[in-house]
Amino acid sequence: MKKWLLSLALIIAIAGLTACGDKSDTVVETKHGNITQNDFYDEMKKSVGPQVLLNLIYSTILPEKYEVDKKEFDEKYEQFRSLYGENYEVVLAQAGLTDKDIKRSIELDLLISEVEKKAIKNIKVTDEEIKEYYDDNYPQIHARHILVEDKETAEEIKKKLENGEKFEELAKEYSTDTGSAQNGGDLDWFGPGKMVKEFSDVAFSLEKNEISDPVETQYGFHIIQVLDKKKKPKLEDVKKEITDELKQQKYENNPEILDEALKKEMEEAGVKIKDKKLKKLIEQ
Q1: What is the pLDDT of residue 97?
Q2: Which of 5, 126, 128, 231 is buried most, with the most CB atoms less than 10 Å from its CB?
Q3: Distance CA 277, CA 129 (A)
Q4: How many domains does the chain have?
Q5: Which parts of the chain are beta strand (E)?
Q6: pLDDT of 104-145, one tens digit each?
Q7: pTM for this one?
Q8: Do residue 8 and residue 116 come from a single domain?
Q9: Residue 55: CB partners within 8 Å, gap ≥ 6?
Q10: For 126, what's the count of Cα atoms within 13 Å in the CB-facing half-sphere?
Q11: Are residues 91 and 27 in the same domain?
């Protein structure tokens, strides 16, 4: 969070410089030469200038088209304040910020979030993609497993289970799957396309509470128990849910989607960057 505060402080500082007077004014004097406001401004422009300028542009154009939800704003503002509690004002002062600056930053985040929602909504998903996701994720089962390196150990574990020993305790003791062992081997809910074929074929053939014989995969030997099963829903009943999930996945895997959406907002608002250096940096 400190980094975020410092970034915001830089944004405010460089924005403030653009409103100052003579850029030739000296900000630092040394025996070996002076540093002018213009020198300082040029260096900041190269390092943080593009993002600063874009944030100023977004803060100018987006409120004309999008509205920030007051409840969501208040929640984010209170959440931020609660991070520092009674030290809130002190932390801001140390970063060269005011409460107004924080509110302005939160408002910008929420405005960009509205652009993001619109961009996600406009992502195209094909019927083939929906069907593939449906086949990979439905029906779902809740299962757990114990993974070991050799068949002999797996058979030993199976016998212990038949003799009444607890699955979760044996998973903690034997399983080499560190991701699930401490949870008693629990794999949560998953669909048929989420596991390797050998594992999936056996797991989906088991009845509720049934325990498998050792199952060999590329990872070793598994003892699988199905804890619960869900019926396969009709495709039309989950189509919207799948579509939303696929859109979200495509968005998360393609960060340029938001960049293009914001670029379009700038074009529609008739934004023209007059500073050639900044324009070039932003285009790059």
Answers
A1: 84
A2: 5
A3: 43
A4: 2
A5: 26-28, 35-36, 141-148, 186-190, 215-217, 220-229
A6: 999 999 999 999 999 999 999 999 999 999 999 999 999 999
A7: 0.74
A8: yes
A9: 11, 108
A10: 3
A11: yes
Same domain for 11 and 108: yes
What's the 3-state SS for the chain? Answer: CHHHHHHHHHHHHHHHHCCCCCCCCEEECCCCCCEEHHHHHHHHHHHCHHHHHHHHHHHHHHHHCCCCCHHHHHHHHHHHHHHHHHHHHHHHHHCCCCHHHHHHHHHHHHHHHHHHHHHHHCCCCCHHHHHHHHHHHCCCEEEEEEEECCHHHHHHHHHHHHCCCCHHHHHHHHCCCCCCHHHCCEEEEECCCCCCHHHHHHHCCCCCCCECCCEEECCEEEEEEEEEECCCCCHHHHHHHHHHHHHHHHHHHCCHHHHHHHHHHHHHCCCCCCCHHHHHHHHC
Q: State the DSSP code for 232.
A: P
Is there a single domain that holds both residue 34 and residue 115? yes
Q: Are 59 and 33 found together in one domain?
A: yes
Question: Is 109 among the domain residues?
Answer: yes
CA distance 101 to 78: 14
- Same-domain pairing of 107 and 175: no
Q: Are residues 14 and 87 in the same domain?
A: yes
7 and 69 in a single domain? The answer is yes
Residue 215 scores a pLDDT above 60: yes
CA angle 56, 59, 61 (to 5 degrees): 105
- Identify the domain containing residue 210 by its residue range: 139-229
